[in-house]
Structures are given as structure tokens and as C-alpha cells.
């Protein structure tokens, strides 16, 4: 069971499940250690109890450290800045996109990328949508790890500043 959770946890990229798997493994080892200690004591070996206790303490400290380190790394898992620049340059390479901004964030196991693309203000909405589909296709090719891609078209350069605040501004205020 511990092994299964670990494999599945790693496959679906879940730090929680991996932590849980390590916990199951810890439980199994602790039980085995305690059992071995009790058997030694029952067999008349007085060293069985402290030895088993010490072994369990070492295992708890080691696994506790590993689980904590993994979860902390995951909680601080900021999006790689190259994701933003890759998405913006892929969007900018699509004809009709005058300018593009991208934002990315993790929600659980899903990397979500939002792209704002500035297009010709005279463009019909269906053409802006078609450009948006080309943009999301282009980004999906460059960033296969992105589980969700959202396109929003903006009219021209006049409305350059995004409705949603950017967390990682790429531009100076004059651009
Ligand atoms: Zn910009």
C-alpha cells in the first residue's frame, strides 16, 4: 500500500500523496521494529526493547525530515519564469498578435497559463477567437506541462495594461 501510494503520488505529481505514502511506510517499519523488539524481549534478550526503540526513533526523524522537506519545496513551488517568457514569445509569434502578456500559476497539480493578446481593435470577435486558438495551440506545443490555457483578447495597444494585475511584470511602465 505504501509503495502503491508512492508510485501513484509521484506519477500524478502530488506531494501530499507522496508524504502519505512515506507515512504508511513509516508505520509499517515502526510496527515491524516494535514487533522485533518485543520478540527479542520475550526471548529473554533485555537489549531488544531499547534497540528497537532507538531504531524506530532514527526512522521517525529521517522520514519526518524527508516529508517536511518535500512538502516545503512544493509549497514554495513558484512557476519557473521561463514558462512566462516561453508563453509570451509563442503568443507573439502568431500573426495578428500585436503584443502578449502571460501569467502562470499552479492550482494543485495543474499548471494554468493565462494569455492576454492585443489584437487589431477593428477585428471581428470570431477572428480574435481564431487567433486565440492558434495562440493556445502554439503554447501547448511549447509548454506541454500546461494543463489549462486561457486566452483573452484585448483591443489594440491603447488598453495595454491588463485587467488582472501581473505578478511578474516583464515590461517597463513606458512599454
Ligand atoms: Zn506588455
Polypeptide structure, described:
This protein is α+β, with helices and mostly antiparallel strands and 175 residues long. The chain has two domains: 2-75; 81-155, Alpha-Beta Plaits (2-Layer Sandwich). The protein has five helices and three strands, in the order H-H-H-H-E-E-H-E. The protein has helices at residues 2-11, 15-42, 48-75, 81-92, 125-142; strands at 99-107, 110-119, 146-155. The chain has a three-stranded mixed beta sheet, with helices on one face. Strand 1 and strand 2 (110-119) form a beta hairpin. The longest helix is centred in the N-terminal third of the chain and has 28 residues, at 15-42. The protein is rod-shaped and about 90 Å long. It starts with a helix and ends in a 20-residue tail after the last strand. Bound molecules: zinc ion. Zinc ion is lined by residues 99, 101, 160, 171, 175.
What's the name of the CATH homologous superfamily of the largest domain?
Answer: Cation efflux protein, cytoplasmic domain
The low-pLDDT segments are none
CATH fold naming of the largest domain:
Alpha-Beta Plaits
Q: Could you give a short account of the major beta sheet?
A: 3 strands, mixed
Helix/strand/pairing class, anyone? alpha+beta
Taken as a percent bin, the fraction of beta residues is 15-25%
